[in-house]
Design goal:
Blueprint lengths: L1 H22 L3 H12 L3 E2 H8 L3 H13 L3 E5 L7 E5 L1 H22 L4 H15 L3
Antiparallel strand pairs: 1-3, 2-3
Helix pairs in contact: 1-5, 2-5, 3-4
Length: about 130
């Protein structure tokens, strides 16, 4: 199973990474933007937890996105020692464009399956990643 999942990921990722490079993002950066979009004001550590990225690795990624103007840090409203992370308008625009690239890439890959198979696969993948 692991081999087939990896093989599927490789098929998806090879073209997706090239397409994302056009907008100037790596897939992990897109994931960070999506997490922040769904959780405005999230703390940096929580982004890392959501994506299973170690604290020491999430900081440089958030820094890159902030430096590029896609994210901004503000003092956390309830914890003066922490920062809340938000998308900038530029980050919001980039996320919209990137999600469209992602949808198109998924559409190409999923076109090999019937609509029922697509729904079943999606449901099973969610089930596999749910925490027990």
């Amino acid at each position: 199973m692991g081999f087939r999942l990896r093989q599927t990921y490789n098929i998806f990722a090879s073209d997706f990474q090239a397409e994302m490079a056009v907008v100037g993002l790596r897939p992990v950066q897109l994931s960070i933007l999506a997490i922040v979009d769904e959780n405005p004001g999230i703390r940096q550590g929580k982004i890392g937890e959501a994506l299973n990225i170690a604290r020491e690795n999430i900081a440089p990624l958030v820094n890159e996105l902030e430096k590029a103007g896609h994210l901004e840090r503000q003092r956390h409203p309830t914890d003066g020692r922490a920062f809340a992370i938000y998308l900038t308008p530029q980050g919001e625009d980039l996320l919209v464009r990137s999600k469209e690239i992602l949808r198109q890439r998924e559409k190409v890959l999923m076109s090999r399956l019937t609509p029922a198979e697509q729904q079943q696969l999606t449901s099973l993948l969610y089930k596999l990643v749910e925490k027990p």
